[in-house]
Write a structure and sequence with these properties.
Layout: E1 23-25, E2 37-39, H1 46-61, E3 66-69, E4 80-81, E5 84-87, E6 95-100, E7 104-110, H2 117-127, H3 136-142
Parallel strand pairs: 2-7, 3-5
Antiparallel strand pairs: 1-2, 3-6, 4-5, 6-7
Region (Disordered): 134-163
Biased composition (Basic and acidic residues): 150-163
Length: 163
């Protein structure tokens, strides 16, 4: 019996690399708190930084139709990219919101790219903590403090998203 193995050569994918993406989400896309995770981009060039983020999120949660960001956090960007609307009207600095039909809205803290690596790591892991309900300003100011060490706040109980 003879087995023939056919080798095909495919063109390299134009997908942006996501292996080095510095992003964490709360477990199970929990909707508690102000953000559902954090992202630490390497620059303020949105058109360079966004493709790997969008690839990672879409692989995990589904199609992304719109990205809302704070204009002053980023260098100028076009209004559309790959069928995704880019909206620079976000009121909150250091936040980016992604919208898609399968997951609704996902809001991420954006850790400024010039942030010290240790501090940035603390911010990202704290923001992705299941019980964290800190504001973006609190996250960027209080990195390194555990959730238990922070003053209590009146916040709704964190429940998994029903999506």
């Amino acid at each position: 019996m003879t087995t023939t193995i056919e080798r095909t050569v495919t063109a390299p994918s134009r997908q942006p690399p996501i292996a080095g993406l510095r992003m964490q989400l709360k477990p199970g896309h929990q909707a508690c708190g102000f953000v559902q995770g954090a992202w630490w981009p390497r620059s303020t060039l949105l058109t360079d930084e966004l493709p790997p983020l969008l690839t990672a999120i879409s692989l995990r949660l589904g199609t992304i139709e719109r990205v809302q960001y704070h204009e002053e956090d980023w260098s100028p960007a076009p209004l559309h990219t790959d069928d995704i609307v880019l909206d620079a009207s976000h009121d909150s600095p250091h936040v980016i919101s992604l919208y898609g039909p399968q997951f609704g809205k996902l809001t991420l803290l954006v850790v400024p790219p010039y942030t010290d690596a240790t501090h940035a790591y603390d911010v990202v892991t704290t923001a992705a903590s299941a019980l964290d309900s800190s504001t973006p300003d609190e996250l960027l100011d209080n990195a390194g403090q555990s959730v238990a060490d922070r003053p209590p706040k009146d916040v709704d109980v964190c429940l998994p998203s029903d999506r």
